[in-house]
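Meet my pick.
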Amino acid sequence: MNSEDMALILLAAGHSRRFGDEDKLMADLDGRPLGVHMAERLCALNWRQKLAVVVSDELRNTLTGLGFETLTPLPLAGMGDNLALAARQVGGAAGVVVCLADMPFVPLTHISALVSALGEGITIAVSTVGEAKGPPVAFSANHIGALRALSGDAGARRILISAAVQTVSIEASCDALSDIDTPDDLERARGRFG
């Protein structure tokens, strides 16, 4: 598959409980908000549809300017709820790629590898570091119904562990798949731009 046939879902609405009172995704990282890095990188690919679930009005305006259709989650919605909200807006795509806005270092080559892995019986391509599996993840269209039915905080984990799916793991470095959860994580990320 290729990105032109796929919908992109960017989740930018987490509660950021471990980050404190500051809006994590609007925190400065190399002169731009943290939540913009992944979004801008993803825009280098052509997508059938670009969706973002976002809470911050300021980030929403930026993402809208980048061509994302933005969706507002319900208060206290978990990752599963947010993913379902976006999946319900997907129409006519060959599949979806799910990314998190707090992962600023995922290379575009990794996203392309996930998309390219789908097909010939492979319906999910998941990122891995060692034994750990997680986002970004690419799903073929036959999983969109299951994504629409998600709820709670677990995200798509139950789809990933289902015995009925064919998956291929795409290995990445720990640094590439690091996300920003705490102020210390942000400081380490700032050091990488040093």
